[in-house]
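User:
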Amino acid sequence: MTYVDAFANGPFTGNPAAVCLLPRAGEAPWMQRVAAELNLAETAFVVRRPDQDFDLRWFAPAAEVDLCGHATLASAHVLWETGTLDHQAPARFHTRSGVLTAVKSGEWIELDFPVTPAEAVPPPPGLIAALGVSPRFVGRSRFDYLVEVEDERAVVETKPDLGKLRTISTRGVMVTARGADPKYDFVSRFFAPAFGIDEDPATGSAHCCLAPFWQARLGKTTFLARQLSSRGATIKVRLDGDRVKLAGQAVTMMTGEFTG
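Assistant: Predicted structure:
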């Protein structure tokens, strides 16, 4: 097991993920227990396939998830750092969201993910009260609700009632606004208490929804995004048709072995 900070420009930033390279596929209940034990936003389980690609599954502390950016970035980082995969070779992962790839670009790792656009919807009962915000837009993607607020300050000051938010039928809720610093095109935060994640430090998969949302408003396809969690994360985002390219850095923090 390797513990990695993903979408991180140094130790103790970005989003921690555990990466488990397994000789064969594990049973889902065992993987869920491991994820609950580690209690990180996601734990990734990676198994090499006969075709030299990799099977990849992600588990949050409370449930398996269908798409995860930071744990995919961490998995690619570990494959290259351990010599499991040549540094020049792309990492190809077979997942519940199709085939995802990762390539090295200097000190950055670029992921190729599917677009998951949000459709405008009426907010479900309790959502706005749980967030305590004045929304400019509410949308629903394949996985999450997207709530646009007035400005970056409103994103920073969002203090959700996590107990109420946990009752909303969704993987998570992202709150977003244009960046106050011209360096960043947009900012966001992400809450997923129903999956055991009160606030996610860096959510790559959320940017598969945020990219088309901000493309429609800013008229561009390349962004520098900032996730305003307490740890903070910077993500390069590029919209390419029905795909989103997400780039970040990763830092290995520790390695260990399971005895159970």
